[in-house]
Please model this.
Amino acid sequence: MNAAIEKPESSAAKLTMLLAGVVILLMMALGLIMRATQGNLIQLDPALFYQIMTAHGAGMVGAAALTGAAILWYFVGRYVELIEGIYWAFLGLFLLGVVLILGGIFIGGYGGGWTFLFPLPAISGGAWTSSAAASFILGYISIGVGFLLYYLEVGRKLISKYGGISGALAWPLAFGSGKPEDAPPPTIVAAMATTIFNTIGIVVGAAVLISSLVNLLMPEFAVNALLAKNMTYFFGHVFINASIYMAVIAVYEIIPEYTGKPWKTSRAFALSWSAILLLVMIVYPHHLLQDTVMPAWALVMGQIISYLSGIPLLAVTAFSLCVYLRGSNIRWDLASALLVLGVAGWSVGSAPAIIDGMISVNKLMHNTLWVPGHFHIYLILGEVAMAFGFMAWLVKDARATGLAGMDRVAFWLYLLGGAGFTLMFLISGALSIPRRWAVHVPEWFLQDRIAAAFGALVVLAALFFVSNYARGLGKSRSS
Amino acid sequence: MQLTVLVVTLLFMGIIAAYFIAAVQASDAPQSEINFDARRSRLIWSLLAFGAVVTVASLWSWPHAVRTTSDVVTVNATGYQWYWEIDKESVPVGKPVVFNVHTADVTHGIGIVDPNGRLLVQTQAMPGYVNRVEHVFETAGLHKVICLEFCGIGHHDMVSEFNVVSKQVVRR
Model:
């Protein structure tokens, strides 16, 4: 696409990816600091460790969501006219949220974790004030409001152009006699499904955030802790998954450029997205498997739906990409390699996730380092790989073609570092090392230090991806 | 158990990774004539059948079942920021021990760790609720109680101990 006639969503996406890339890099550095602290390589005060942990969690989830949102907006803009001002409002509210969150953490001392699990924000044992927690919560609310605006715009445009929600979800093809050639493109189906479930997720999240906020101001306003936990994990699960489901749109749109073969909406594709829409919203009880007071049916549902959620991913997304790649003569460069890695990492990461979703396994693995193990595979080798792939593609005209030189080195460094880093989490989880501990005992230092070494490789590679992207942006502007 | 879980997980991860590696390697091979739709259907049905078997096998006896027989030893454990209060110093080997887990403030998670550092069982401590979990200890020795839900700046300091003793010692 010629830069001179670039669509407005292009510059918005480019700026967003630059901001998000820098945030991801900083958050990875915080992650490395935490693993080095646990390995006794550096010393951190536990209060600061937990502040860093909170910033790392909120920052990575936020950056993943932001990159997903930029990808969705960019590619949906190929099919419908989106109001640019909405995106800037979304980005403005997002940045306001970031300021409130960072202020709450590093000025107010809030270190209650990104999951703000009720009633911890209000009961800190003297570690932070109510206003610090309120600032953190208001930051989330600001980001949530921005996302609701964003989805309202995307949703209404898709609904009006593609014949309602059912049309945009390709239901005539999935459940009726519709033909594949009449179905909307994969990007639209994915965008419609994500818009629906993430809007619901954010609304539920906003409700529990507001309840927590009122509780901070008026402690006599009590919330049922189990209900709050259900709502928090419903929101958290849906929101972080939405970022992956938004980012995969980059695969649908970009990979065909490298193969010359279009990615079409098939019946299996349409059915799988309808299944995702349902499954992503009913799977969250797998986060509460150790609450024995939960109704047994909900926990059974959590286990079964965890497993079923893997089927659209493995049998449709992963399987289709692998079939698509065979004999495709795909051109490899940093963008295509990272995008394919993103789907592969996401698929591979589903194995430890599904296995931990079994109640009997969860009893031994829940809240050990196994848990960050699985979601760091989803993120480092999944969503973030897709985001870096999208960034590499955005500046590809300014870059050398092919996967050679430093691109090749950085790609393999990232893959090796990411695989080693996450594998150490899984091994540590199997060795019963708890997660979210600022201080580790000497028996755990070795695993922590190996993880830190692999983590350093990830940070190095990410530094290359982000700085190269920034350079690419500079070059394309000057040309 | 944990080691088995790790090995099985790595096996599944390896299979998925191998499938991707094979597809990438075949990207410059000639187009295949294989009917992939039929293959996909077989994959879905196999996954559903496998899942059904694993689901039934893993839930046949309810993992959170708590016995109410007369030989049950009950332990009340309460989480505070940042310590555990446990009403028994020792419990017997070989008998069902039921932990009634409370919290006095925020959400905690109780984890029982054996003398080798292996997590044996856990449950959450929820404000306003009592989560109950049962375990039959197989070996005697000093066991640790740790916190497995982030509860603030002293989270990692919530370590207590209790003894698991042979039945003879308990009787004495």
